[in-house]
Amino acid sequence: MAEISDILSNRRTIRKYSTESVDDKLLSDILAMGCRTSTTGNMQVYSIIITKDEGKKKELAPLHFNQKMITEAPVVLTFCADFNRFNKWCRLRNADPGYDNFLSFMTAAIDALLFAQTVCIAAESKGLGICYLGTTTYTAEKIIEILKLPKSVVPVTSVTLGWPAEKPEQVDRLPLEAIIHYEVYNDYSDDSIASYYKGKEERQDSQQFVKENNKQTLAQVFTDVRYKKADNVHFSKIVLKVLKDQGFMEQ
Ligand SMILES: Cc1cc2nc3c(=O)[nH]c(=O)nc-3n(C[C@H](O)[C@H](O)[C@H](O)COP(=O)(O)O)c2cc1C
Q: Of 151, 161, 174, which is closest to residue 82 (Cα–Cα)?
C-alpha cells in the first residue's frame, strides 16, 4: 500500500471515471475513516448525502452547471453543514440549542469541509479519484430542495467519486515560500508578487488561456472570466438567503 506522503504528493483531481461502480463496503470504510477527522467539540455537525441513482444525478447535473463528472461518476457526495441532528438531540434532552447564528454555520461548515477532505484522502488512498464541485454553494437553494435538506442543514461542497479513467499532469502550485509567514504576516511587495506568480504566468497553458480569452494577463482571466465580480455578488446574495432560510441568521 502506498505511503500517505506519496498519496498526498502525487495526487491530482480526476474528472474522468471508468464505468466500474464503487463497492458499498469500500465507500462505508472510506466514510468511517473520514469520521475520524477532528470535529468541533466532537459534535460532528455535518452530514453527507450519497447520490448513486442515475435519475437523481441527472436532477443534480444542471445545479452543477452540467459538469460531466456528475453523471459520469458512479458516486456524488454532497457534504452538508448540519446542526439539525444536534439541535434535535439537545431539545430531546432538555437542552436549549443556541445554534441559529452565523458562527454556528461557520462551525458546521468547517467541520463538514474537514470531513470532506479526509474522505477525499481516504478515497485516494484506495486508488479512487475525486473532484470537488464548487458549484454547490452557487446553487445551494435548489440542492436543498432536491436533496430534501431540512432547516439547519446547508450543503457546502460536493465531490464526485469513481475509479480513474485518466491520469492528468499535476497542475502547478505557488512556491511554498509564497504561502508561509513566520510568526507574523509578512505582506507582499510588488516584486515578491511578481516573482511568486512568475512560474504560473509563464506556463504554456496559462498563456494559451490568456490568448483564448482575449485577455492581457492571466489575472484578468480570473477577474473577468472565471470568478467575476458580478457572479460573486449574485451568488453571495443567494448564499446569504440560504443561510437565512435555513435558520442560521436569527441572532
Ligand atoms: C472547493 C473546490 C471547488 C472546486 N470546484 C471545481 C469544479 O466545480 N469543477 C472542477 O472541475 N474542479 C473543481 N475543483 C478542483 C480544482 O479545480 C482543482 O483542485 C485545482 O485546479 C487544482 O488541481 P489538482 O486538485 O489536480 O491539484 C474544485 C476544488 C475545490 C477545492
A: 151
pLDDT > 70 fraction of the chain, expressed in percent and rounded: 100
3-state secondary structure of 132: strand
Q: Is residue 153 within 8 Å of 116, Cβ to Cβ? A: no
pLDDT digits (tens, 9 = 90+) for 67-117: 999 999 999 999 999 999 999 999 999 999 999 999 999 999 999 999 999
SS3 9: helix
Whole-prediction pTM value? 0.97
**Which residue has its alpha carbon closest to ligand 1 atom 27?**
12
Where do runs of H (alpha helix) occur along the chain? 4-10, 24-34, 54-60, 69-72, 84-92, 102-125, 135-138, 140-146, 176-179, 190-202, 204-212, 218-220, 229-245
What is the reported pLDDT for 19?
96
Give the position, in ligand 1's atom list, of the atom nearest the Cα of 168: 26
Say yes or no: CB of residue 133 within 6 Å of ligand 1: yes
Q: Which three cell numbers stand for residue 23?
A: 463497492
State the cell numbers at 34: 473520514
User: What is the CA(130)–ligand 1 centre distance, in A?
Assistant: 9
Distance 133 CA to ligand 1 centre (A): 7
pLDDT for 156-203, tens place per residue? 999 999 999 999 999 999 999 999 999 999 999 999 999 999 999 999
Report the C-alpha gap between 244 and 68 in whole angstroms. Answer: 31
d(CA 86, CA 108): 11
